Amino acid sequence: MTFLVCSTIFWSLLASLLMLDFCASMDSLNQSQSMSEDETLISPGGKFQLGFFSTDNSSKRYLGIWFYDIRIRTIIWVANRNKPLESSPGLLKIEHGNLVIQNHSGQAIWASNTQNLSSSSTTAKLLDSGNLVLKYGNSESYLWQSFDHPTDTMLTGMKVGWDFKAGMEKQLMSWKSALDPSLGQFSFKLDPSGFPQGKMFEGNITRYRSFPHFGSVHAAFSSAYIPKLVNGSEGAYFSYDLRDKNTLQRYLLNYTGKLQHYIWMIQTLDWMLLYELPNDSCDEYAKCGPNAVCVEAKSLRTCKCLPGYVSKSAEGSDTLNPWYSGGCTWKSSFNCSGPEGFKGVKGVKLPDLLLFEMNTTMTLKECENFCSRNCTCTAYASTSESTDKDKTGCGFWFGDLLDIREANDNYRTNEIFIRVIASELEGDSKRTKWVVAVAVVLSVSSAMFCLWASWTRRKGQGANVDVHAEEEENFELPVFNAVMISQATNNFSCSNQIGKGGFGHVYKGELPNGQEIAVKRLSETSKQGLNEFKNEVMLIAKLQHRNLVKLLGCCIEGRERMLVYEYMPNGSLDSFIFSTMEGSCLAWRRRFNIIVGVARGLLYLHRDSRLTIIHRDLKGGNVLLDNKMNPKISDFGMARTFREDQLLEKTKRIVGTFGYISPEYAADGIFSIKSDVFSFGVLVLEIVCGKRNREFHHPDHHFNLIGHICRRGNYGSRGKHMS
Ligand SMILES: *[C@@H]1O[C@H](CO)[C@@H](O)[C@H](O)[C@H]1NC(C)=O
Ligand SMILES: *[C@@H]1O[C@H](CO)[C@@H](O)[C@H](O)[C@H]1NC(C)=O
Ligand SMILES: *[C@@H]1O[C@H](CO)[C@@H](O)[C@H](O)[C@H]1NC(C)=O
Ligand SMILES: *[C@@H]1O[C@H](CO)[C@@H](O)[C@H](O)[C@H]1NC(C)=O
Ligand SMILES: *[C@@H]1O[C@H](CO)[C@@H](O)[C@H](O)[C@H]1NC(C)=O
Ligand SMILES: *[C@@H]1O[C@H](CO)[C@@H](O)[C@H](O)[C@H]1NC(C)=O
Ligand SMILES: *[C@@H]1O[C@H](CO)[C@@H](O)[C@H](O)[C@H]1NC(C)=O
Ligand SMILES: *[C@@H]1O[C@H](CO)[C@@H](O)[C@H](O)[C@H]1NC(C)=O
Ligand SMILES: *[C@@H]1O[C@H](CO)[C@@H](O)[C@H](O)[C@H]1NC(C)=O
Ligand SMILES: *[C@@H]1O[C@H](CO)[C@@H](O)[C@H](O)[C@H]1NC(C)=O
Ligand SMILES: *[C@@H]1O[C@H](CO)[C@@H](O)[C@H](O)[C@H]1NC(C)=O
Ligand SMILES: *[C@@H]1O[C@H](CO)[C@@H](O)[C@H](O)[C@H]1NC(C)=O
C-alpha cells in the first residue's frame, strides 16, 4: 500500500519534472523533432504559445499562435486557415528544411514553402514577439517568418504593406466568422499609389481609408502606442511601436469589418478596445460621393458640397437615388480662362490620394501658384506635419475629390484649399455657405434624399407647398436610413406603435445612441399623403421653437416615407384632458402652462417665424407633451404658408377636424390665422372643461360645448363641468 502511494508520488513528481524540463526547452523545433497535437512551443519569455487548436467542438483543427499567459485565448496567427486538419491528428515537423503540417497519412496539408534552402538543417523558433521564424542554426537572418504572412492580427514589429526588395505584399485578412479562421471578406492593405495610405476592403470594394499622413510618424493620438507609416527604398509599410514595452497589444482586422486596437488590462484581466474604425458613418469610404464633405452629428450623416460645387442630381432626372452615385459637381461650368481662386475648408480628413502629387520643398504660396496654373488641379493642401508658419511641402489633387469628412477629435485636422471661380470668393462674409446635400447611410442600392426644397421648386406647383423664403436659403435635414429606423422600432412592431393618423402609423423607437424617437410612417398608398409629407418636412425643418415638436430627420427610401421626431413621453394632450382615468387629472397650474405654451407656439407660427404659417389642424391630439408636460404643437401636414402681406386664402378642399374648424372656413373655405385662433379657442375651452367640443351633452339643449358656453354667457359655472 505504502509502496503504491510512494510510487504514484514518485511518478507524478517525475512527470511534472519532465514536463517542466520539456516546457522550458520547447521553444524551437529542429530536423529531428516533431510536434504532435498535444504538444506546444512556448516562447522563451513565456509570452506566446504555438500549438494546435480548434475553435469549437468541431473536428477541425488548426496550427496557430496565441498569447500564452492570459486567461482569454486570443489567436494572433493561423497557419492552415483554409485547410484544417479533420478527424485524425496532425503533426508539425521540419521536412527538407521547411515547416510542414502533416496529417495522419503523412501528407502535407500546409508548408512554409521557402525555396532555395542551401541545407535542410533549419530550426523553427517561436520568439517572444509572437513571430515564428525559420533559420539556419543560430543565424540571425530568417528564411521564413510568420510575420511575413499575417492572418488578421498585427503585433508590434509586424509590417503591413509592401516589401519592394522581396516583391512581397503583406496584408491583414479577416476571419470568416468568430469561429471560422478561413479567409474572410475583409482585408487591410497599403495602397502604394500616390502616397501610401491604409485601406480596408470588403472583397474588392473600399470600405475605409485611414487618415493620410505625410511624415514618417503619425500624429500621436494614442497614449498606448505610436503608429508608423514608412515609405522607403526597401518598402512602404504601416506598423506601430509600444510606448510601454510591457503591455500586450494587438491590432485586429475583425471579421465584423472593423479595424480594432486592443490593449490587455491587468486590472480587469480582459482586452480593452482602444479604438475601432470605421467608427461612424462618415468613416465609411466616400459615402457622400465626389466633392462632398461628410458631417456626422448625433450618429446621423449629412453631406455637404464643397464650396463652388452643387449636387449633381438636382439637375439629374433620377430623383430616387441621386446622392450615392451623384455627389457634387461644379456650380458653374469651369473653364480655365475665367478668374479663379482658392477657398479653404478647415478641419477635414484630406481627400483620397488618387490623382495626387507632392512637392516637399514648395511653400504654401508657391503651391497655390502651381495649382492655379494647372487647370486640372482641383485642390492643394499643406503636407507638413509641423505647425511652423513657414511650413513647406504640399500636395495637389487632380480631378474629383473623394472621401472627405469633417475630422473628429481623434485626428489632427488639415485645411484644404479648393479651386473656385472668382465669384465664389466674393461677398462671403458669413463663413462658407455650403450648399446642402444629403446623406446616404448604408446600402449602396438604397436611395435616400431629402432635398425637398430644390426638388419641389423645380417641380413647380404640383405640391401643396409654397415657400416664400429667400431662394438662397439652404435646407438641411439629416436623413435616416430605413434599415436603421426599422431596427430602432423593432421592425415597426405593433408593440412600438403609439399612434395612428390619416397618413399612417406612428411608432416609438430608440436610436443606437439611446435617443428616443417617434417615427411617423406614411402608408404606401396615400398619394395625398405624399404631398402633405413633403409639406411637413419643408415646414418643420425651418421651424425652431420650444413649443413646436422637433423634427430630427426624414427618410425616403423606395416607397418608404418617414418622419423622425423627438419622442414625447407624455403623449398627446387629448389623453390627459379627456381621460376619465384616476390620477390623469391635470392641475390648474399645468393646464394654464399648457394653454400658454400652445399660444406661444401659435404666435410663433403666425407672427414670429420668418414665414406666416397657418396650422389648420390645431386640436388636442396634435399637441404633444414632453416629460415636463410642456406642450409642443405637432402635425404640420395640413399647414399652409402665407406671404407677409397675405391675409386670407380660399380653398375648395376643407381640411381639419370637425369641432375645431371655424365657421367661415367650414362654410366658404376661407382661412387665415384667425382659423387657427378659433381652433385654439376651442382647445382652451376643452382644456378648461375637460370635455370634447363635439361630444358635449347637456340635458337642457343639443348644442356642443361652444354653443353651451355661448348660451351660458358666463364662465362662473365652469367648475360644474370639470372632469
Ligand atoms: C535538435 O534538438 C535537440 C534537442 O534540442 C538536440 O539535441 C539536437 O542536437 C538538435 N539536432 C540538430 C540537428 O540540431
Ligand atoms: C461544446 O462542448 C461543451 C462541453 O463539452 C458544450 O457545453 C457545448 O455546448 C458544446 N458547444 C457546441 C457548439 O457544440
Ligand atoms: C491527408 O490529406 C490528404 C490530402 O489532403 C487526404 O487525401 C487524406 O485523406 C488525408 N488523410 C487523413 C487521414 O486525413
Ligand atoms: C531559387 O533559385 C533559382 C535558381 O538558382 C532562381 O531562379 C530562383 O529565383 C530562386 N528562387 C528564390 C525564391 O530565390
Ligand atoms: C469586384 O468583384 C466582383 C465580383 O467578384 C467583380 O464582378 C468585379 O468586376 C470586381 N470589380 C473590380 C473593380 O475588380
Ligand atoms: C516612396 O518611396 C519610394 C522609394 O523611395 C519613392 O520612389 C516614392 O516617390 C516615395 N513616394 C512618395 C509619395 O514619397
Ligand atoms: C470582434 O469584434 C467583436 C465586436 O466588437 C468583439 O466582440 C470580438 O471580440 C472581436 N473579435 C476578436 C477576435 O477580438
Ligand atoms: C468613436 O467615436 C466617438 C466620437 O468621436 C468616440 O467618442 C469613441 O471613443 C470612438 N469609439 C471608438 C471605439 O473608437
Ligand atoms: C469661362 O467662364 C467664365 C465665367 O465662369 C466666363 O466669363 C468665360 O466667358 C468663360 N470662357 C470661356 C472660354 O468659355
Ligand atoms: C518642387 O518645387 C520646387 C520649387 O518650385 C522645384 O524646384 C522642384 O523641382 C519641385 N520638385 C518636384 C519633385 O517637383
Ligand atoms: C496638370 O497636371 C497634370 C497631372 O500632373 C498633368 O498631367 C498635366 O500635364 C498638367 N497640365 C499642365 C497644363 O501643366
Ligand atoms: C426584423 O426583421 C429582420 C429581417 O426581416 C429580422 O432578421 C430581424 O430578426 C427582425 N427583428 C426583430 C426585432 O423582429
TrEMBL record:
GO CC terms: plasma membrane
Residues that bind ATP: 520
Residues of the Bulb-type lectin domain: 26-147
Catalytic activity: L-seryl-[protein] + ATP = O-phospho-L-seryl-[protein] + ADP + H(+); L-threonyl-[protein] + ATP = O-phospho-L-threonyl-[protein] + ADP + H(+)
Family matches, as PROSITE patterns: BULB_LECTIN, EGF_3, PAN, PROTEIN_KINASE_ATP, PROTEIN_KINASE_DOM, PROTEIN_KINASE_ST
Gene3D superfamilies: Bulb-type lectin domain, Laminin, Phosphorylase Kinase, domain 1, Transferase(Phosphotransferase) domain 1
Entry annotated with the keyword Nucleotide-binding: yes
InterPro entries listed in its UniProt record: Bulb-type_lectin_dom, Bulb-type_lectin_dom_sf, EGF, Kinase-like_dom_sf, Pan_app, Prot_kinase_dom, Protein_kinase_ATP_BS, S_locus_glycoprot_dom
Top-tier EC class: transferase
Apple domain segment(s): 336-421
Localization in the cell: Cell membrane
Protein's UniProt name: Receptor-like serine/threonine-protein kinase
Organism: Punica granatum
